[in-house]
Amino acid sequence: MAIDGRNLQILANYCAAAADAMAFTLMRTAHSTFVKETEDFSCQIVSRAGLAFASPRSFGAPWYGGIDYAPVLALIDDYQDGDICITNDAYAGNVATHSPDIHIWKPVFHQGAIACFVVGHIHNTDVGGAVPASLSRSLTDIVQEGLRIPPLKIVTGGKLNQEVARIMRLNVRAPEQNWGDFNAQLASVNIGERKVHEIIDRFGIDDFLLGIESILDYAERQARAIIKTIPDGEYFYADYADEDGENGYPCRIAVTLRVRGDSLELDYTGSDPQLMSSLNMPTGGRERHPLALVGVTYVLATLDRSLLLNAGTLRPTRAILPPGTIMNCEAPAAVGMRSLTCAMSQIATVGAFALAMPHRLPANSPGGNSIINIRTVDRHNRIVVASLGPVGGGAGGTPRHDGPDGSGGLSAFLKNTPIEISEAEVPILFNRYGLVADSAGAGEYRGGLATLMEFVVSAPNTTVTARNRNRSVFSSAGAAGGKPGRTSSFLTNPGRYNAVGHGNTDVIACGPGDVIRIVGPGAGGYGPARQRAAQAVLRDWQCGFISLEAAARDYGVVIRDGAVDPAQTDRLRGVMAADDPGDHFDVGDARRNFEAVWSPARYALLTAFLAAAPVIWRHFLKHKVFAAVAAGTHGEQPLERQMDRLFADLRREFPAIYGG
């Protein structure tokens, strides 16, 4: 049949349904809660050239919808029918981007020739390494982050490579769980292969191959049409992770968005150098790496919900990813926490687009849920390694409605794990898992509320990890007069004599009776809070979302005897009406104070200085510069002279850096 508009849509639906079938198979047969409940996995069908053209439509991790498998496909010399390949090496093709993400791919043959590939990944709860769950910002090189599998055939002609399988099982903390998940992956690609054969039988191989390219081309045309609605110009936005390492300095992710007709450019120059921690992103400098462009995908899909999401969607966009920086690191840099950096790059991207379209896009989401994992023992003294689910915040308030609570925004399709399942599989007891009152940024449309998880540990030598801990210092920004969200916290034994606050620490040891409480950050509000309907504020109070004090302080709404007091509300709001919203984004006091010292001009000088140094020195030099600026030893001269003198002092102190 001809691949015209109608039949192209039919083919696209068939391909998406095949990807759905792969995902359902994986989700329903996986062993770990992180796959079967949180759904941190992906499934795609990719062209012979490696471009994804079909993905699940409503679950899994949509970060990978625009993925290009070409670099890893090329690392296998010869494909035969029945082969399945595997890798989790972040530096082999830059498709797998940290060790827990095990990617597999299978060629689909038709009459002796490859028609396409069926591919996918899962995030394993643990792949060995220095810490339970394998990931921590404290790790300094990728060797510490667990087992690495180079691209190879794990199945050859339908026969499993038992030697590699034994290595995989031997080097992880929960081998049966991992092997169960891996078998679910195998089932997923086998189902995908069968579904592709059914599609080819229906459409014919020629129309199937032509249809793949047409699907990609159609998504590109859609994306270009959306981009044309965005005002041409150059827009800059930056945001910060709280720390660039354990007890470190803030970590900057900066992007300059350039809109030119129907094309986009995202320039990440000005982002922090490659770090001696695990926040680095191994993009390989690829200008359409999906992790660098997730924010673009989200924005375009927000502006047109009919947009097809595949590799064609990203064709009008290119990213500039300077080498030796946090956005394009070099081996052997640790990369386990690249998901936090990716989340912050999404916030920066959406922020830049919001400056171009301030009345179409929301305030900041918190970015980066804390993924809570535990390593403990059960009553039979068997080791248990499990994910307890994400703890994060909601989405930013929008120009038309409140941000969703507890999720949304940049959370993709990832889901929470019901506490009944966690308690059945892990020897802990939950005290609370729910939303946090007064955590959302105030606004005409408030931000989404944060979540809270609190549980009691029952065994000694237990380790809890909270991957992606962030926003305990810098708030999620409000927009258009809206206020920032509340910051996060991580506590052991809250309210007791032995209470400990952990800040952004992401790995803690605990024992029987210890209470662990993780509170996520709230999202920013949109629009002046005094303009929020008083009845909406009353409803928030009735639902337990805000306190009486916050209703009066943040919204100017006085509630007495369960009802709004109109006179007192008018009085308070009359005072609030004099507030000047200032810039489009209200980034909060912590960031304002930081940027009063680390202005864009000072950061630009730092960026140029670090770019001239060898990669291995950059994180060290950044810390030396930050410490000198904090000490004020070069503060008696104009900014440029201050920094020039500081840099000259460092060159003299470390002449080996520059060949001296």
UniProtKB/TrEMBL annotation:
One of its GO terms (molecular function) is 5-oxoprolinase (ATP-hydrolyzing) activity. GO terms for biological process: glutathione metabolic process. Residues 7-528 form the Hydantoinase B/oxoprolinase domain. It comes from the Bacteria. InterPro entries: Hydantoinase_B (IPR003692), Oxoprolinase-like (IPR045079). One of its GO terms (cellular component) is cytosol. This is Hydantoin utilization protein B. The lineage of its organism: Bacteria, Pseudomonadati, Pseudomonadota, Gammaproteobacteria, Enterobacterales.
